[in-house]
Specification:
- The chain has 308 residues and is an alpha/beta fold.
- Helix content is 49%, strand content 11%.
- It contains 14 helices and nine strands.
- The protein has helices at 10-16, 25-35, 40-44, 53-68, 83-90, 98-101, 105-115, 119-127, 134-159, 162-175, 226-239, 254-261, 273-282, 300-307, and strands spanning 23-24, 71-72, 78-81, 199-202, 210-216, 223-224, 243-248, 251-252, 267-271.
- Strands 4-5-7-9 form a four-stranded mixed sheet, sandwiched between helices.
- A hairpin with a 5-residue loop joins β2 (71-72) and β3 (78-81).
- α4 packs across α7 (105-115), α9 packs across α13 (273-282) and α11 packs parallel to α12.
Amino acid sequence: MSVPKYYEFIPFIIKFLSDNQTKTIKEITEYCATEFDLSESDRNEKLPSGKTKIYDRVGWAKTYLKKAGLIESPKRGTVCLTKAGHEAFKNSNSNVTLEYLSNFDAFTQFRNRSNNKKREEQLFEYSQIKNESPQEQIETAIKELNDELTSELMVEISKISPYEFERLVVKLLIKMGYGDMEENKNAVTKKSADEGIDGIVSADKFGFDSIYIQAKQWKSDNSVGRPEIQRFLGALAGQGAAKGIFITTSKFSGGAVEFASKQLHSKIVLVDGRKLAELMIEYNLGVSTIATYEVKRIDSDFFDECIN
């Protein structure tokens, strides 16, 4: 038989993890391949990227289960069932479908971010064949891949030290075109004399202008409020600076956003955790390309020249 769809692996993963033991993705993949009695050829079938199809599909099934909160990763590279996962197994794991996962708010929010679709539209999609064009399917898939990568990046960023986070921010700004590493090798300020400024990068290659940085590595459930932005504004004024960027791993409160937008004499840009991860993807910082696909079309000019 051919390699099953990714969602067909979901109930088998739940069953395999029901023994309260942590498992690796390799162990899960091997179990699923055995359960579906896949041939050696099926197991080795590869995608254009070089990854085996079964490993990719089991991986996405695992991702969806994790987004729904049915499995978790106690340590890198392993997963186990959560309380909700055990409940799903008790209630008949064969019923754990995409529609079942849509009952969990976290999963619905994840799908909404990826596809910008309402829950009712998602349920219809699960039960019907997609009517999107091939181009639309590609773009939807890219959005979903990048959304998952964004979430993974946010987790990795939360694990580094505060100093490493400040260095990461400086490297991102350099990737975005603000000077180079040699010019900004001392961009991160010393804690004993930072006066509320975590870093300074050159806004141009001649050093005529500078951007002052505040980097807050906060937990995702903590919001940066207006008082923090006010203190940063005071720090900018103390430096005689007019440009500042406040980057956090969490998010900004409505009051913070409103206050920053009303400043006339100082320009303060706010970058939250999700935007930071998206910029890292856009400027290839902390990520690597695993595959490149070309989409081609007819060159009408070529045929017009041939005819004429």
